[in-house]
Amino acid sequence: MKNNEIQQPGQDICSLCGKVLTNRGDKSKYIEDTIGGVSYRFDSKDCVIMFKRFLSVYGDGFRRFSGQPQYISDPFWDRAIPKEEELKEIEEEQMKNISYTAHKSTRDIVVISDPLEVQQLGFDLLESASEDIAIIFSTGNAFLRQVRIGGIQLLEEIRKHRTGLNIRIITPTNEDIKRVSLEISRRLGVKVRHIVDSMQSKITLVIVDRKYSLAVELKDDTKDSLYQAIGLGIYSNHKSTVLSYITIFESLWKELELNEQVASLCEQLRSREKMQTEFINIAAHEFRAPIQPILGLAEILRARERVDIEKQQELLTVIIRNARRLKTLTENILDSTRIENQPLVLHQEFLNVEDVIYDAIQDINSQSDNKATNVRIIYDPLKTKHKIRFAKADKGRLIQVISNLLDNAIKFTEDGTITVKLDENTNKNEIVVSVTDTGIGISKDIESLLFTKFMTKASKGTGLGLYISKSIIDAHGGTIWAENNENGKGATFSFSLPMEPSK
Asked: Residue 214: which of 223, 205, 224, 222 has the closest Cα?
């Protein structure tokens, strides 16, 4: 500006360009505006606009130029101040291109007011990801909105080209979100964790490659339209800002992981407590059943001074059968306790497996009650050149497994046959023993839990037999499994053991 204009006494000057406001008394010749609590006078409306822009960029430090003898120079001002319309066009052009260039620029923070531009920037950030994507959705509706407009589907496209990309999502949940979460987890390998409603915020947060972040304000969650639902978006590539967001995400992620583990343990404890309660009730009934005939028949034998030998033998047979049943129940409970606390101790020897099967069938036949008279046990060994099949096993434990499978088949077969087969799998050098019944088959709701503790659908039994059998076979290095028969009648339980060379 011209020094002689500045130094003329009693003259007002423009707070931006320094031009002299010659007609001080005529307010129509200048513009007076209050900015930040301070009153300023300007030569034109353009000066007001530019002053506000400089103040927003440089802050209060810019105020020191006001009222001083040196202002913005005339050469600068002589280049012509852009008109207000031109400034709006420049601003709109900047906003139009910001979604494509903001996260690659050197600017630390960008505020975006147009919801569509916020969405586009979000998509651009996701597409630029090379290592890691972390998203916290503000509400369940925010998550479902992104599903509807293609945000989640975009992740699928990105994942096709970047298989090593780590994608994690935190979102509030409901039944729809659970269904979608399971689907994208299965199809894309995306890890999803859920927060409770009380932890919802008003900000959706996207963090990409631990370098860029986009925080999106939730304006009205009831709206289906993205344009109406979200407000400002704040992009940042400032290291400390992004690091703060990452810290928040990781802390929340770990907390949710711990919550899931605690919930899983609680569910296991509840399930275990329920099973133990059911087991106590079942065990009490199972113990009572053999004890009553033992006591009753023993009292009969003692009360009668003269009982013929044939009658004595009949009563003693029933007592012995129930005593054996009681012994089996006691041993099963003890075995289950030992299995939990330490590995099974096996006394292994080379055994002819056919002899073991015969012994197990004889034991079952001697212990069966009246119900078993409607069930016939058939043994069908594989006769191949009269080959004897040996296994290195604990005879008592192996008989226990076969007896458990036979006893289980009898429980679920009212009338029919139970077939025991001995086969071999030469490819794996294994002996395979199978027990096939014509009973009711395996219920779908317990199919995956068959060999777990206390699991039973029978009207009697403790639910320990299959659990103990699996532990015994595992200790021998074998495998045990079960499946329904193809004809829809009954089921087949099988186990394999390593086969030893013929002696």
From this structure: 205
